[in-house]
Each structure stands twice: as structure tokens, then as C-alpha cells.
């Protein structure tokens, strides 16, 4: 019964086209998990790793309620699985899901759409309670006959089995502005183990630098009625400066050992009354044409680095992203040259 219900929910997710449909589908999935999963919400098992904070089991469970993020990631992963199934029709597809949380939200519902011999997956999470929850859900839904390995491990340092060739790698362990959570550190580790044909989800995390008035950005609007979603009406005086970098397979293929990313130096505006803040904006290409734009999700909300009012005596700024320990933004500045 539960497997049939989950199948109907995920089919509706794949078929959904409008924001209202996306929200309804995500609410149905959230309700389904809440009904069948057993999570102790009184336990805070957040874990500090080398690269950020791994969410507690209850915190990870709440991510399903970031509606558009949930729907778009599931749609993107389904599309990637279909591509891989077509590319490799004679064998199963090997999936590595790093940071699966207590629901394995981004892969478990999709299992119902594939024969059990088509998916061979490793599901990682650092919290044993999350692994136990996924195991329980698999049992309740009758999906425990799929080829799934549930492993308690730190995805920042995890090394895959030698015989396991990753076709699809999934990690959605993000906070806005790429702060706090270990998305980049995990991605760096996974990319080093990904073959040329392997697909990384998300395909790209695009990080842009802009001047804006942070308090007027629509993501802070109290009128937002859909969790994690704002119909973007950009602050009219926002000034795009540059794309700082894009987290992708290609980035870490060339910078495998880097734990810090530094931008160029950029001129600070002389008149910044309409846009006094240095901010980071994020867009996510999940797979091919499926994307999350700025403020369509908690993880693509803008992040303020510094106010230009505190930099009045300087002429240029450089932004620095360091994910060697706790991921964070900092900056360097230059004085005006006469």
C-alpha cells in the first residue's frame, strides 16, 4: 500500500508543471514521510566535519519542506537516471548519494519508477539515526529488495569501493551562500572519484557577486507564503558585478587540492546609497534545463558579506571563499592609488 502511494506521489512530481502543482506534490511527499518515518526530533545530532556542519536528522528531514528545491532536484535526478539508463541499457546504474538524511528524499521515491535490477546505490550519512530511518522506510515501503548499501560515513572523506564505478553522484548539503554546510567539501571529494561519463547533481552551483540593498531583497519579504519560494521581483538598483566561480566537475578537475577560492579585485562604487551591500547570489543548475533561480529556495537566497559603508576609505575589494574548515566568506581590500 505504501509503495503504491509513493509511486503515485512521485509520478505526480515528474508530471508537475506549475508552482502550485510543485507545492502540492512536495506537501504530499512531506506528509507521506511524516506518516511512515520515525524520527526523534528531541535529539540534536548535528555533526561538525572538515568542511561544515552536517545537519541533524530532524534538520535534514525538514529540508523536504523547501518545496521547489525538493521537486526540482527529484525532477533533475529522474532525468539523469533516464539518460544513464539509455546510455547503459545492459547494466544497472550506480548511484552515490552523499548526505541522504533520514528520508533519502532525492532518490528513494524514484526507485518505484525503476526495476530493482536497474539501480545499484550507496547511500551515505554521518548520522546513524538517519541510516536507521532510511532502512525503516525501505522496509515499510517494500523497497528493501533493491540493491542499496546504507553506510554511516563522513562524505567529505568517504572513499568508494574500488569495484563501484559512480554513474550518478548526488549531494545536496547546502546552506545559502555556500556557508555552514559541507556541500563544496563533499563535492570536491566526490569529483575526485567520478569517471568522465559520471553525472554530478547538482551539475553547477553558480556564485555571483553583486551590489544591492540587502534588506530590500525579496527573499526577506514577510509576505512569502510558500516555503523557500519567492516570486522574484529583484531590487531595482541591484548591480551585477561578476560570476565569481561555478562549482562543477570541471572546477575541481583543475583545482583538486584547493580549499580556498579567491576572486579578482573589483572597484567599489563611489556612490553606493542605493546598493550599499556586497552580496553573494546563487543559482543552481540541477541537471540540464532544470534550475533553481535566486530566492526560489532557501539554498539560493542571497548572502550579505559586508556593507560598503564600512569600506569607505577603500577603492577595491576581493572576495574569498574558504571551505577548509567551516565554510565562510571573507574579503580583502585595497586603498585607492594616486
Describe this protein's structure:
- The chain is an alpha/beta fold and 338 residues long.
- It has two domains: 2-204, 3-Layer(aba) Sandwich (Rossmann fold); 205-335, no CATH class.
- It has seven helices and 15 strands.
- It has helices at residues 2-15, 19-36, 57-62, 67-87, 128-141, 183-191, 249-254, and strands at 47-49, 52-54, 93-98, 119-125, 147-152, 168-170, 199-201, 204-212, 239-247, 260-267, 277-287, 290-292, 303-307, 314-322, 328-335.
Keywords:
28% strand, single chain, 26% helix, 7 helices, 15 strands, globular, 338 residues, Rossmann fold, five-stranded antiparallel sheet, five-stranded parallel sheet, 2 domains, alpha/beta
Please give a quick description of this structure.
By secondary structure, this protein is α/β, with parallel strands linked by helices.
